[in-house]
Every structure is written in structure tokens, then in C-alpha cells.
Fold:
Amino acid sequence: MKKIVLKEKKVSDDFLIASFEFENPFNDNTQDFIKPGQFLMLKNRTEPILAKPFSVLNTNRNGFKMLIKIIGRFTDYLSNAVSGETFLYRGPYGTAFEKKLDLSKKIITIGGGCGAAPILFFNEHYFENIEKTIIGFKNDSIRNLINIDEAVYESLSGKTVIDELNEYLLLRNKVGKPIVLACGSSSMCQELHKHSLEMNYQLFVSLDERMGCGMGMCKGCPIKTKSGIKMVCKDGPVFNSDEIIWEW
Ligand SMILES: Cc1cc2nc3c(=O)[nH]c(=O)nc-3n(C[C@H](O)[C@H](O)[C@H](O)COP(=O)(O)OP(=O)(O)OC[C@H]3O[C@@H](n4cnc5c(N)ncnc54)[C@H](O)[C@@H]3O)c2cc1C
Structure:
């Protein structure tokens, strides 16, 4: 695993933004260290726990930023870590969104909670491809960390990202079947799949699955698809939702 140093950290109630610095910066400023859709496996040096998968929010030659939801042992540890602490990472792993999407078309992007990270990273890389973006959070505590123009807060508006998408699609005045790329909880992706059938759009979902190795070796993140069992880490995390056997 490679070393990275926690440079800066901002914490709100249930999220944090962590900036990490590489031990050795890349020489080339345009270096594509990681592509939107891919993820890194991250761990601390002191605890005997497996590395955990995280997307990046953005990256440059010196390091990368992550948007992290505090939900358990590692994320809690990170929320209490101090600047200067060394962490370990390996990767990038997974298939970049660009490999599964037709980038000659416009795309509607949807992020739920920490699923905002890969979506905002994708938007930054492919801004010319973005038709519309909706980023949903349960509450607005994230505003203490980051200003996201496209954010909607369920606690304030009473609307989920699916409600917002539905409203947009009903008023949409564009030629061609809408294409939606979404990243969020399993329940959000599952609801979106049902909605895509009702509203007739093409949906790609980046799945948030518990992972062991992150590179397809441990077979710990299986998903049933129309073309057999696939590993979310290696064959995904992004899939065409029509390919997934959701009942599994
Ligand atoms: C490809 C990919 C990219 C990801 N990117 C991000 C990201 O950018 N930001 C972010 O905050 N999180 C992201 N995640 C989720 C992240 O990996 C988990 O939240 C993290 O592993 C939790 O570690 P922990 O030790 O804090 O929690 P643990 O102590 O391991 O678990 C705490 C609780 O959370 C549940 N849990 C753990 N992992 C997941 C999971 N993947 N999905 C649903 N429930 C889970 C456990 O069952 C348990 O109930 C991503 C996951 C994947 C697969």
C-alpha cells in the first residue's frame, strides 16, 4: 500500500471532507491518477481493519479530497484524526464511468449523500456532457463543509432526489431518451430503477456495496446480472440498471 498524509479535515455532524497529500506528487499536472467512477481502498496504520472503498471528490498532482459519511469504525477514526497523520491506500480500482456511458450524449447525474463525491468528480471532468444534476442530502449539515449548487435537502424541501428528478423529467423538453447516472445508497438505486421503468429513461447506477479486497479476488461483493454473477468492485461499481437482477 502507498502512504498518504492527512493534510486537512473539516467535520460536520455526519460528514467530513478530508484532503490527503501523496508522499511523492506527480510531475505532470494533467496526470489522471484516478478516473470518475473508480475508487481507492483506504486504511489507517494502527488498527487491524481491512481497507475500505472510497471515491474521490477531486484530485490534483499533490493529492486528493474525499467526502466521507461518518458511519462506523474507520470513518469515525478518520473524523477524529489529526492533520499530519499517515494513512495507507491502494488502487485505483473499478471501472470508470466513461467506459460504460456513451459520452456523445448528455447525461443527468444524481448523487445521494456520500454518492455526491463521484458524481461531482464526474461533473468536473465531463461538464460538457451534463444535462442536469441533482445532489440530495437528508439534512443541510453538509453546508458547513462544502457549497454544492445543485444540492437539495430533504429536511427542508420534503423532497427526495427522485421527486426532484420526476419533476424535471415531466417538464423536460429535449429530444431523445434521458440517460441518468446515479450514485447513492442501495435503496435509492433500487427506487430509481423502478422509476426508470415508469418514466422510460436509461439508468446507470454506481453501487455502494461492502467490499473485501476491492479488486475481484475475494468474491465478497457479488451481484446477479442478466449475464451472470459479477463482482461490484471489478465489473462495477457502475452497471446499467437493466442488467441487474434486482430481486436477488
Ligand atoms: C465503490 C465505493 C465507493 C464509495 N465511496 C464512498 C465515498 O466517497 N464516501 C463515503 O463516505 N463512503 C463511500 N463508500 C462507502 C464506504 O466504503 C463505507 O461507508 C465504509 O466502508 C464504512 O467504513 P466504516 O469502517 O466506517 O464502517 P463499518 O464499521 O465497516 O460499518 C458501519 C456500518 O455501516 C455499514 N456499511 C459499511 N460499509 C457499507 C457500504 N459500503 N454500504 C452500506 N453500508 C455499509 C455496516 O454494515 C455497518 O452497519 C463507498 C463504497 C463503495 C463500494
Observations:
- The first strand starts at residue 2 and ends at 11.
- The mean pLDDT is 94.
- Residues 51 and 213 are 8 Å apart (CA to CA).
- Residues 186-199 form the longest helix (14 residues).
